[in-house]
Amino acid sequence: MRVGVSNDNYPEKRTIIVDADVEYVNFKNKNIYSYINLLNMKFLKKDKIFLFRPLVGSQKKNIDVFHVFNEIAITDRKWVATFETELPRILPPKNGSKEDNRAKLQRLSSALTANNCLALIALSGAAYKMEMKLFNDSPELSRVLRDKMVVMHPPQKLYMTERPARNAADPVHFVFIGKDFYRKGGGEIVQAFGELLAANAIQPEQIKVTLIGDLEKTNNYAFGPYQDDPAFARETEATIARYDLFEHHSAMPNDKVMQLLQKADVGLLPTWAETYGFSVLEMQSCGCPVITTNVRALPEINPQEAGWLISHPLNDDCDYAITSLQERDALRRKTVDRMKNIIEDIVRHPEQIHDKANAAIARIQSEHNVEAYQARLKKLYSK
């Protein structure tokens, strides 16, 4: 089977380019919107257009199906789309809302209902919910989309089939991975550990904390106009420098990260915003249970038996609504306090790590099985 893809970036490799028995043909340089987006984004300072349209004459006759990510395919060939937020994906205008895109949404929806659109794969239940909400004022369109939609969480390779019991004498090793250090909750992690240490609630010899992320990434898109004062980043870096138990890396090769996770005890992702949470799957596949917040897909992939969930009220898009500095600070305080309680409980009762670690491995084996995912894709392609 030959499947045409519009790119081979990380999302495609995690959700589409997943089967060695399938030949994938990359149409990135044969997609007219690759060039339109280059012009729009680089020179005209416009937003990306999430469309795929093969250049005339570029569609080889033996391409069986196109499979795109977050895009709509404008083609007369069979196609499938995987999406993490909603389709059509149209970024709202600055200082505007999604309702300003209503005309564009209606215009592009015809491609979704066409017979050659075989399936719409929601990456999570949260994405499914958002897609149905997008067209809740169009009952007939919603019915057609519902018939085409399936929820398929991405596949994940297992790195161990059983987590051995940890040495009780070793410090509990926590690991955070997030290039966007502050958006993914790195600042709150450092604050939580710092406050616990300052209050003598835990001792430095009881823990080890590895932080992998860019400390220069201070902007947090979840905050919108309510960004942190530079003092927050300065205090975060000062706390890291104050305690030897923190080990910070700006970046680390993925193979080294996976080796680290197989030795660590607990993963950390108290993120402010996340479209999915692939790093949670990677941690779980290494038998490393994770502390996360509850945005988007995280409650689906981090159930209580396999990890720890910090829950706050969500808006209709399964996100946190930050509408003031006070709201930002109040939510941060709640996240830090909840994280402190979880960390202190883990340090006092580290035996829970083993049970959650093996539950995490079991859920990856059953919910993110690579072979089962490949089989489901082939079935959709053959419609």
TrEMBL record:
Q: What is its EC number?
A: 2.4.-.-
Top-rank taxon of the source lineage equals Bacteria
Tell me the ranges covered by the Glycosyl transferase family domain, including all copies: 169-337
Please tell me whether the keyword Glycosyltransferase is annotated for this protein. Answer: yes
Name the InterPro entries on file.
Glyco_trans_1 (IPR001296)
**Does the keyword field hold tRNA processing?**
no
Record's keyword terms, sorted: Glycosyltransferase, Transferase
Pfam families with a match to the protein in the record: Glycos_transf_1
- Return the Gene3D superfamilies for the record: Glycogen Phosphorylase B (3.40.50.2000)
Entry protein name: Glycosyltransferase family 4 protein
- Please name the GO terms that the record assigns under molecular function: glycosyltransferase activity
- Using the UniProt record, name the top-level EC class of this enzyme in a single word: transferase
